[in-house]
Amino acid sequence: MTSARIGLNLLALALGACAVTSCTSPDPPALTVTPPPSAGVADYQLGEAYAPDDRVRIVGRDRSAEPADGLYSICYVNGFQTQPGERKEWPEHLLLRTDAGEPVIDPGWPDEVILDTSTAAKRDAIADIVSAWIEGCAASGFQAVEFDNLDTFTRTGGALSLDDNLSLAAALVDVAHRAGLAAGQKNAAEYAAHLRGTAGFDFAVTEECAAYEECSDYAAVYGSAVIDIEYSDALPRTFAEMCRDPESPASMVLRDRQLTAPGDPDHVFAVC
Q1: Number of domains within the chain
Q2: In this structure, is residue 170 part of a structural domain?
Q3: List of residues 6+ apart from 4 with CB closer than 8 A
Q4: What is the per-residue pLDDT across 57-113, written as a single tens digit (0 to 9) for each?
Q5: pTM score over 0.90
Q6: What is the rounded distance in angstroms from the CA atom of residue 84 to the CA atom of residue 168?
Q7: Domain that holds residue 66
Q8: CA-wise closest residue to 194 among 160, 166, 225, 161
Q9: Is the dihedral of CA 32, 38, 44, 45 positive or negative?
Q10: What is the arrangement of strands in the sheet containing 42-44, beginning at the earlier edge strand?
């Protein structure tokens, strides 16, 4: 048999094997990610992006905004429920519904519907949508992404479980890492160990961990890689006292609840 015929036969065998096993190209390896600078001064600008204070080294902004030039920028992604005004952009079958067929609304955010993570097929479909946002964050120049509402299962009366959301979280963290972004756990202090151990989060972004005395729960899992936002309308003690508290993270910022920009009469920004 000629070498040419042998080569053709080997090619045919290879193609046949792929037809049987559905050969696919291996996923590209995850890129090296850089966590937020330890103890860096932070600002949280989800309401409106603006020029940060000169002391700031870390900025959190919505995925619709551009990263802060020259600073470590974290991209906010609402991965487990709809954003205000974006419900119609989601396929109806991915919205969690009650037995009566009504969408399940987050009681704290009446314009946000909880996503249905109850099956692998739905989690895959959600991940496909959110993955495009994550990759968009990387393309824009962000260094990290934070995933909000990891704890939606606690607001569904048992319709969703921790494992449901952990599975989706792990998929989203993998997408972030492959895009070169560090992945941040948002809130959910009591599940921090599970979220880091199972999903592979790199750091935590917390809201009011000092007010609710939860900061040590995050520190036990993430060490100094914790960024905390306190809100001026719900301080159980002065912000200065919080800053002196050894349990408080070094990266802690005081903001107004609506996260307004300088010039707004409600704007609040203070750091330790």
Answers
A1: 1
A2: yes
A3: none
A4: 999 999 999 999 999 999 999 999 999 989 999 999 999 999 999 999 999 888 999
A5: no
A6: 21
A7: 33-271
A8: 166
A9: negative
A10: 42-44, 58-62, 72-78, 144-148, 182-186, 203-207, 226-231, 251-255, 269-271
